[in-house]
Write a structure and sequence with these properties.
2 domains; alpha/beta; 7-stranded mixed β-sheet; 8 helices; Alpha-Beta Plaits; Rossmann fold
Length: about 280
């Protein structure tokens, strides 16, 4: 993977933003390997992602930040610049189901997902052997009605201990409390086994089967305090019919879930996502 710096910007839309940023990068010898823009007509907001060949710049990232700050202030920008060589630290939360976490671990192990996975946390023990095969620490944090608050405190403490940049709920079947949602705002990614906003909550395949749907799907989204209502990162569907049982739908749905989660996670890891309100802009 080529070493790049990723400059991600959002700001009120106006004439000259692209020219100003491009000129700035060019002044320091910056070679753009990728550039994406979007102007949202409804909100009057502009979104931009530039990927810059790191070796082409004549200044360091710290010097880049210092020099770019006046431009950011001039245009009222919300902005970040990140180093593609610095992998984000991904903490995974999972429960019983193994298909999503197995897919993430395989993609990570085969260097298809560029990240570090410092630990996995689960409220069940059945995934331990699989996780430890990858030499990743496994933390068992049981949750029940009596210890829920204490368990969530332990989970937050583990995420902080391992310096998580992003938390992925790989079919983690517990509600994330507001305290953790706020601490990791736009950094907790969930896969919901339904095409949201349809069939929110538990047992969506049973509900879909009872409703006689012709499409089932999955939704990857950021987690907020409102259950299953966070900004959507990715979605997909697969066609079904009256011949498919609930078990058929579960089997087909699992394939969609892991693919959708991988796409949404990849876009986040590559700094392609800008969350604005309850929507996301994906600069792919």
């Amino acid at each position: 993977m080529e070493h790049t710096y990723r400059l991600v910007v959002s700001c009120p839309d106006k004439v000259g933003i692209v020219a100003k940023v491009s000129q700035f990068i060019s002044e320091y010898g910056g070679w753009l390997t990728e550039a994406s823009y979007h102007s949202d007509q409804d909100s009057g907001w502009f979104f931009m992602r530039n990927e810059i060949k790191a070796s082409s710049l004549s200044i360091s990232m710290r010097e880049f930040k210092d020099a770019f700050t006046p431009i950011a202030e001039q245009y009222g920008m919300e902005w970040t610049i990140s180093d593609s060589n610095k992998h984000k630290r991904l903490v995974i939360l999972a429960s019983h189901a193994s298909h999503c976490i197995a897919d993430i671990l395989h993609r990570w192990h085969s260097e298809d997902l560029y990240c570090d996975i410092p630990c996995v946390i689960s409220n069940h023990e059945n995934l331990r052997s699989m996780v430890e095969w990858y030499d990743i620490p496994f933390h068992y944090v049981p949750i029940n009605k009596e210890n829920k608050a204490k368990a969530n405190e332990e989970i937050l403490a583990l995420c902080q201990k391992y310096q998580a940049d992003v938390v992925v709920l790989a079919r983690y079947m517990q509600i994330i409390p507001a305290s953790i949602c706020q601490h990791y705002s736009s950094r907790i990614i969930n896969i919901h086994h339904s095409f949201l906003p349809s069939f929110i909550g538990a047992n969506p395949y049973q509900k879909a089967h009872e409703r006689g749907v012709k499409l089932i799907g999955a939704t990857c989204h950021y987690v907020t305090e409102q259950l299953d209502e966070g900004p959507i990162l990715d979605q997909d569907v697969i066609r079904v019919n009256h011949r498919h049982s609930k078990d058929d739908m579960v089997r087909l749905g699992k394939d969609v879930e892991k693919t959708v989660l991988a796409r949404g996670l990849r876009n986040h890891l590559e700094d392609r996502v800008i969350a604005k309100g309850n929507k996301t802009i994906i600069l792919d």
